[in-house]
Design a protein that fits this description.
Layout: H1 2-42, H2 44-52, H3 55-73, H4 83-98, H5 100-103, H6 108-131, H7 140-164, H8 169-193, H9 205-222, H10 224-229
Helix pairs in contact: 1-2, 1-4, 1-6, 1-9, 3-4, 4-9, 6-8, 6-9, 7-8, 8-9
Length: 270
């Protein structure tokens, strides 16, 4: 009996240590990304480069997704010390560069404000997932069914935004996607903290930190529409403090106004 209790205490200590490492590494990834995004916002030449050459971000983001897939499915790579850290750093760096083309169109006050909101949301739902008694890891099928239903709704709203130009359709799309991601944040928190039906292995902290980082990135990417369109944090600030940023103009749902040519009159000779 005593031996069983000792094993249980040792497991709980190891699980708490694992969770702390995962959350600290996740925060480190977020801070690393934020510093680079601020550089893009504040350095004019870098910002202009990613406005003009947005395909650089596309290439790096595709490479990041390929590396993530490789890292997940080739399990042995995750446990080769040195190689696993190198791949993780490359994934985080490539995802960060992938967002440079979005960051180049926003302003640093809006970037900081929405970054803080997304971090707060992520860790609030990590806390909720950790303290609620219900075991979400038993309801994976329900989560995926909800995600599929929400996917249908989000496709509808994004098409209403693109094709019809429906006001606030993108906001509805953003809200539904964010709810899906936050549900999975709670699920991931329970697998990290342990004590549930499904849990992550104690030596898989790098994969766990990457999952949380990508949860955050999805939520943060959705905020660029509000950052660029509404400029809630930078509105009213002095133009000497903020750089000039070219905001892309959306013409969906608008009709071209008829152009009138001014009539020319010629004076008749007397």
């Amino acid at each position: 009996m005593d031996e069983r209790r000792q094993r249980l205490r040792a497991y709980r200590r190891a699980r708490r240590k694992f969770a702390c490492v995962v959350y600290l590494v996740s925060i480190a990834w977020m801070i690393l990304a934020l510093l680079q995004w601020l550089v893009v916002c504040l350095v004019k030449d870098v910002r202009n480069a990613f406005v003009d050459y947005y395909w650089i971000s596309v290439i790096f983001f595709v490479l990041a997704m390929a590396l993530v897939t490789f890292f997940i499915f080739f399990e042995k790579i995750r446990f080769i010390m040195g190689v696993n850290w190198l791949i993780c750093v490359l994934i985080v760096e490539f995802v960060t560069i992938g967002l440079f083309s979005f960051v180049a169109h926003t302003l640093w006050p809006d970037l900081l404000m929405w970054f803080a909101v997304c971090v707060l949301l992520a860790f609030l739902f990590i806390l909720f997932g950790s303290i609620i008694p219900h075991d979400l890891t038993l309801d994976v099928v329900i989560l995926f069914v909800l995600a599929f239903i929400f996917l249908i709704v989000t496709v509808f709203f994004i098409m209403m935004h693109v094709v019809v130009g429906m006001p606030y359709a993108f906001i509805a799309y953003q809200i539904f996607i964010t709810v899906i991601v936050l549900l999975f944040v709670m699920y991931h928190a329970q697998t990290i903290n342990g004590g549930r039906f499904a849990e992550m292995r104690l030596d898989d902290y790098l994969l766990a930190s990457l999952i949380l980082f990508h949860d955050f990135v999805v939520i943060f990417m959705l905020t660029f529409y509000a950052q660029i369109t509404y400029k809630l944090a930078s509105e009213g600030m002095s133009t000497t403090v903020l750089p000039n940023v070219t905001t892309p103009v959306t013409t969906i749902g608008l009709t071209n106004a008829p152009t009138t040519t001014p009539a020319t009159t010629t004076a008749k000779p007397a």
